[in-house]
TrEMBL record:
<dbReference type="GO" id="GO:0003677">
    <property type="term" value="F:DNA binding"/>
</dbReference>
<comment type="similarity">
    <text>Belongs to the BlaI transcriptional regulatory family.</text>
</comment>
<dbReference type="InterPro" id="IPR036390">
    <property type="entry name" value="WH_DNA-bd_sf"/>
</dbReference>
<protein>
    <submittedName>
        <fullName>Predicted transcriptional regulator</fullName>
    </submittedName>
</protein>
<dbReference type="GO" id="GO:0045892">
    <property type="term" value="P:negative regulation of DNA-templated transcription"/>
</dbReference>
<dbReference type="InterPro" id="IPR005650">
    <property type="entry name" value="BlaI_family"/>
</dbReference>
<keyword id="KW-0238">DNA-binding</keyword>
<keyword id="KW-0805">Transcription regulation</keyword>
<keyword id="KW-0804">Transcription</keyword>
<dbReference type="InterPro" id="IPR036388">
    <property type="entry name" value="WH-like_DNA-bd_sf"/>
</dbReference>
<dbReference type="Pfam" id="PF03965">
    <property type="entry name" value="Penicillinase_R"/>
</dbReference>
């Protein structure tokens, strides 16, 4: 199950904050948004996400607490694969070249990328 853009924003809150109430999620969403998001909108979306199996809901206390079921890494991998397929014709190298060619990559990021490439070459893993 691939999350929609709105669901992904809520998942990002749950991944960073951990299990949270709807009110907590709504407050975090409104901290990072220029447009006010209503509590009932957040509640409805999280209820739909629960039905889809993207989040779980602990109903043992008066205030329900939601947790992400979909792991962040799995969501990133799925969304990235879809993005690469649709935007770059399935070519990861075209995507990387485009991303690095914009001139906004910091020396620290380049060092991390070099380290990853070295590790992938050593492991023989291009997954």
């Amino acid at each position: 199950m691939q999350p929609t853009e709105g669901e992904l924003v809520i998942l990002q809150v749950l991944w960073s904050a951990g299990p949270s109430t709807v009110r907590d999620v709504n407050e975090r969403l409104n901290e990072s948004s220029s447009k006010e998001i209503g509590y009932t909108t957040t509640l409805k979306l999280m209820q739909l996400m629960s039905g889809k199996g993207l989040v779980s809901r602990d109903t043992s206390s008066r205030t329900h607490v939601y947790s992400a079921v979909l792991p962040e890494e799995k969501a990133q991998k799925t969304l990235l694969r879809r993005f690469v397929d649709t935007t770059f014709g399935g070519s990861a190298s075209r995507m990387v070249l485009r991303a690095l060619g914009d001139g906004k990559t910091s020396p620290e990021e380049l060092a991390e990328i070099k380290k990853l490439i070295t590790q992938l070459e050593k492991d023989g893993n291009n997954d």
